[in-house]
Design brief:
This protein has 769 residues and is mainly β. The chain folds into three domains: 102 residues, 3-Layer(bab) Sandwich (Phage tail protein beta-alpha-beta fold), CATH 3.55.50; 103 residues, Ferric Hydroxamate Uptake Protein, Chain A, domain 1, CATH 2.170.130.10; 473 residues, Maltoporin, Chain A, CATH 2.40.170. It contains six helices and 40 strands.
């Protein structure tokens, strides 16, 4: 252990010197680039001539600025900008003239739709066009394009799920959101107890945010960490392992950024509208209804959305009802914003989700032989999460002034019932756990000819509180951080992302004990085109300091003494890979590793125990995309360990879980002339027997069983009625009896895990107006 600590000290000194010597400690941009990418800035389109001031720089960065200043949504193919420097423009232009001037001399063409989308492609790519050509711009009719994110900026191990992906998946829960990504597993079949694991590492070890607001949701290990309604989502971004400094504090094993919808996702200019969507799931008889209204008028924006679901218990692949799986779900989203003529924009949003229904006594499993005789098999649970965010941005930045301010407050509350041993107190009494966070950041992005540098400060004040009849307790943690992140194209075919942050944390234990710690973090990642437009090499490394994490609410103990003194958690992440692309074909592979030291393992009887957590493996992916169709195959092999031994899902609570080998296959085809899309996906989990040995005298642990699950869908959007969408999904077509690989407890002989629903037919109708 002393050697480990010495190694950590050496790394800390190394990064301190690195930050001082470079003077601008590196990079920042991920959440905004991943979810509000340079290539897809959705704004009210301005018409006529306007002022542009865009210096010569990398094409991706220039188009980012162009999108902000013009109000156009910009779509840029992933390989289009590699190694290209834009022309500088300054003066009054129409958007078409400005875009043509930016691209002058490049082997590119651009198209601007009447709806306000600018599309940049190589000249050999022929878009479907009608209309007139002016200043090199072809006007398209009825073309819908989704942005692919800011490309060519050196980030590695990044998964982007776009609005188009979400529309295609039609997700009912987080498992559906990530079901095509084998590196991101979601355990449990109940949304209120689903936890997300990235490369086998639990999400509380990642920087998780919703609309820029940090999440502090470590309430109860039997319920979800971040309950969110996917119907509210516009995009999701995941950094696997190596995360940039601007992802926020606590990015030990990466970052997850959720972004919700706003009025600009539905309207290209001033106007009003709304939609209604209804779903019915035959497995449990679950009805869901969503209602939305939105508008934009002279700089004002608003959006209101309400979604609710109600239904009975579902049946597993055996046809058996799974107790405690009723649906009683309510979510809502409200946003108001105003953009001044100067381009300054302010937005206030509030997002809320609530799950309130009888659940299994331990909501992430069905039953266990470890239950006390007086425990109830089913008890009432209520999970309520709220997130309020204020955001300021300048939508028309000039020079080096491109600021962003975020202030946010979020809470997660779990209410349930305790049943004490008969004769020791009341028959039952209510108990509640609440986590809260007040957090924010101010940052500015500096634009250079070769890329961008973002620098800022952030803070959080987190609180974990247990309201219990006998053992009420509270832990608190506050943090102040400063960061800088650069994304540059310093040389042709080379993209770099590097950065660092310094953090100071103040931690207060349940007995009032205080701990003051500080540390440094750094990251670097790079892409290099070994063969331009064909073969790219990627690599990344990060060292992350995260302070002392809060314990979960439901095990807080007012008698904790915190001896020996807790040490801050740190992590080192490594990744390296290759990506080949050719005429629609993609082939890529990577290896990864995460090492966490001093990971807090808290139990009611012990405030702190240091664990060492490891995750390592490799992934391979291949795909082919052609007109109106795609096929993708992904494979990952992940091993996780705790203190050098194979991980199990109980010791790994809030740390890690066994994963093993996962394969996903996804395909879809659109018959454009008929408005019909058919698609499906397959998940294959291979048998995994790297389970720890059972304690002496206990039954042997079980290997994780293999399973194969097929899903399919048919969607119809009438050509003459694009405001109407009809869809039918069939999930678990062959009635596989299984628990998702990341579901708690399936390796223990005394646990009956929560099985996934058996065959389910889902019918959906969506109408916009």
């Amino acid at each position: 252990m002393n050697g480990t600590r010495a190694g950590a000290q050496v790394r800390t000194v190394f990064f301190a010197r690195l930050m001082v010597s470079t003077a601008v400690a590196l990079v920042f941009i991920l959440p905004q680039a991943a979810l509000q990418p340079a290539a897809a800035q959705e704004k009210t389109a301005r018409v006529g001539t306007m002022a542009f001031d865009i210096p010569a720089q990398s094409l991706a960065s220039a188009l980012n600025t162009f999108g902000r200043q013009s109000g156009l949504q910009v779509s840029l193919a992933a390989t289009t900008s590699h190694g290209i420097t834009s022309k500088a423009i300054k003066g009054s232009y129409t958007p078409g003239q400005a875009l043509a001037a930016l691209l002058e001399g490049a082997d590119l063409r651009h198209s601007i739709t009447p709806e306000g989308t600018a599309i940049v492609t190589p000249k050999h790519v022929s878009p479907l066009v009608t209309g007139s050509v002016e200043n090199g711009a072809t006007t398209l009719q009825q073309v819908t394009v989704e942005g692919e994110g800011e490309v060519g900026q050196g980030d590695v191990g990044e998964v982007n799920i776009t609005a188009k992906d979400l529309e295609r998946k039609n997700p009912a829960n987080l498992q559906d959101v990530f079901r095509e990504e084998p590196s991101v597993k979601v355990g449990s079949s109940l949304p209120m107890s689903q936890k997300v694991y990235v490369n086998g590492i639990e999400e509380t070890n990642l920087a998780v945010s919703i609309d820029g607001s940090r999440q502090n949701n470590k309430v109860f290990h039997h319920n979800a960490t971040t309950l969110i309604d996917p119907a509210l989502l516009k995009a999701v971004s995941v950094d696997e392992g190596v995360a940039p400094a601007d992802a926020g504090p606590g990015a030990l094993a990466g970052a997850i950024e959720y972004q919700t919808k706003d009025a600009r996702d539905f309207l290209d200019g001033d106007g009003f509208g709304g939609f209604v969507n209804t779903t019915y799931n035959t497995n449990g008889g679950v009805f869901g209804t969503g209602l939305s209204a939105y508008g934009i008028h002279q700089g004002y924006e608003f959006l209101g959305y309400l979604n609710f679901g109600k239904g009975g218990e579902f049946s597993d692949g055996n046809g058996d009802k799974v107790p405690g799986t009723r649906t009683n779900f309510l979510s809502g989203l409200g946003k108001v914003a105003y953009e001044f003529e100067s381009g300054d924009r302010v937005e206030l949003s509030h997002e809320s989700v609530k799950d309130d229904a009888p659940r299994p006594f331990r909501a992430n499993m069905r039953t266990t032989t470890g239950s006390k005789p007086w425990d109830k098999d089913i008890r009432d649970y209520r999970l309520d999460r709220n997130n309020t965010v204020f955001t300021y941005t300048d939508e028309t930045p000039e020079g080096w002034w491109d600021p962003k301010l975020v202030l946010a407050y979020g809470t997660t509350e779990v209410d349930t019932t305790v049943f004490p041993k008969p004769g020791t107190g009341p028959v039952s009494y209510p108990i509640a756990g609440v986590t809260s966070t007040f957090n924010g950041k101010f940052e500015n992005r500096f634009h250079f000819d070769i890329g961008t540098v973002t620098a800022g400060v952030d803070f959080y004040s987190d609180r974990a509180e247990l309201d219990d009849l006998y053992d009420a307790a509270t832990e608190k943690a506050s943090n102040l951080g400063a960061y800088v992140q650069a994304r540059l194209e310093p040389f042709e075919r080379t993209r770099l992302s590097f950065g660092g942050r310094a953090d100071r944390q103040w931690f207060t234990g349940t007995g009032g004990q205080e701990f003051d710690n500080a540390g440094l973090s750094g990251n670097v990642s790079a892409e290099y085109d070994l063969i331009e437009d064909f073969l790219t090499a990627k690599a990344g490394y990060s060292h992350v300091w995260s302070g002392i994490p809060l314990a979960e609410n439901f095990i807080l103990n007012p008698a904790w003494t915190y001896l020996p003194a807790p040490e801050p958690t740190t992590a080192d992440n490594y990744t390296i890979g290759l990506v080949a692309t050719y005429n629609g074909f993609t082939l890529e592979g990577s290896v990864f590793r995460t090492d966490m030291e001093n990971a807090r393992y808290a139990r009611y009887a012990q405030a702190y125990r240091a664990r060492e957590v490891e995750s390592e493996g490799f992934s391979i992916a291949a795909g082919y995309e052609w007109t109106d169709s795609f096929l993708r195959v992904k494979y990952i092999n992940t091993d996780t360990r705790i203190d050098g031994k194979p991980a199990d899902s109980d010791t790994g609570t809030y740390l890690t879980t066994p994963v093993g080998e996962i394969v996903t296959v996804t395909a879809a085809h659109t018959f454009a002339d008929y408005g019909v899309t058919v698609g499906g996906d397959v998940e294959i989990a291979l048998k995994y027997d790297k389970v720890p040995a059972a304690a002496a005298g206990e039954p042997a642990n079980k290997p994780f069983e293999a399973y194969t699950v097929f899903n399919a869908y048919l969607e119809y959007k009438p050509v003459d009625h694009q405001n109407l969408t009809l869809r039918a999904d069939v999930k678990n077509i062959f009635d596989e009896v299984y628990a998702d690989r990341a579901t708690y407890g399936q390796e223990f002989p005394g646990v009956t895990p929560l099985y996934q629903p058996g065959r389910s037919f889902m019918l959906s109708v969506r109408a916009t107006f």
